Protein: AEDO dioxygenase
Organism: Callaeas wilsoni
Amino acid sequence: MPRDNMASLIQRVARQARITFRSPAGPAFGENLHRLQQLLDEVRAEDLHLAPRGPSAAAAAAGGGPPWAGVVPPVSYMHICETESFSMGVFLLRSGACIPLHDHPGMNGMLKVLYGTLRIACMDTLPAGAAAAPPPPPAGSGPCLRALFRSRQHYTPASPPCLLSPHTDNLHQIDAVDGPAAFLDILAPPYDPQHGRDCHYYRLLEGPPAGAELPALPREVWLVETPQAADFWCGGEPYPGPRVCL
């Protein structure tokens, strides 16, 4: 059963997010961000009327993805609220689904797992002037980018929120591990291509590791910008949880 304070909790999260990201350069930003992190850490799936599952079949028609009959989207999004300073919603990943490596230009972000297990790989961009020459990219590929591959960690509902800033962990890839997963997502400010905040996708410009073990982290890597993968798209589902008013 949902907890009695479910509505007040998600409402408090939204209000704190508005306070926090209204002045991200202000002197109280660190304190406000910490308070938001504490509130977000309390949120559970039942607070948003969610139960572990994959995206519903109905989302295939509503999501605007490729018209592949009988195929549901690998990822669905439930919109909760959005202001000029932040957006908040829930991403639902089917078992084995992946949100490919992408960036959040000039944005802060917070991610809290609601159910399931996510493997999140985080990277930072590095100054172009300090980088060595990249290996030759495949013909017809996009521009290359030097990055620091910082971490690759598993997150569950017991984990604290995963945080990103404009300069730290700003690029990440999210994989559902051993079943479906869902996470509450806050981005500040929201994506807005007209203001230079468009999403770009990347892949590692290197082959798989020679041995059975993955290379140690952190390490410097080259990324190549790519179009959105053909097997990734995001559908839409209605948000079933408590209403948020701002």
User: Anything to note?
Assistant: The radius of gyration is 18 Å.
